[in-house]
From TrEMBL:
Pfam families assigned to the protein according to its UniProt record, in alphabetical order: SnoaL_2
Residue ranges crossing the lipid bilayer per the database entry: none
Protein name: Nuclear transport factor 2 family protein
Species the sequence originates in: Actinomadura rudentiformis
Cross-referenced Gene3D superfamilies: 3.10.450.50
All residue ranges annotated as the SnoaL-like domain in the record: 9-109
InterPro entries reported in the protein's UniProt record: NTF2-like_dom_sf, SnoaL-like
């Protein structure tokens, strides 16, 4: 594999923070394969359109929150896992989770499996 997992994970987090719809979609198209899929306990998004719609919905639900990587990315072969946080920019995270990304041979994301470790009650 010829990709930098830390860089790709940060680019992925940046997409979740991108509010400009056209810029977000362009970033998704660049970073993710055509049939990219995202699955967590609350949603299954198959394909770039569904991923884009999922991110837009999360931004609508948490308009003043930002995603951030929490720590280093752990990667081997075509897999990377990373912890992320979601909350106000200057405050403690309200949501914490970790994702496992599967990369295609060209370094683009094929699949992300998301897990939620802390969610608001």
């Amino acid at each position: 594999m010829n990709y930098d997992a830390q860089k790709q994970a940060q680019r992925y987090i940046d997409i979740w923070n991108e509010k400009d719809a056209a810029a977000r979609r362009a970033a998704i198209d660049e970073l993710c394969t055509e049939n990219a899929a995202y699955t967590d306990p609350l949603v299954v998004a198959e394909g770039r359109d569904a991923l884009d719609a999922t991110i837009a919905a999360v931004q609508q639900q948490f308009p003043d929150f930002v995603f951030r990587l929490a720590g280093n990315v752990d990667a081997h072969h075509d897999l990377a896992r990373f912890t992320w946080e979601l909350g106000p920019a200057d405050a403690e995270a309200v949501v914490i989770g970790f994702d496992v990304a599967v990369f295609a041979e060209d370094g683009r994301i094929e699949t992300v499996h998301g897990f939620l470790d802390k969610i608001p009650s």
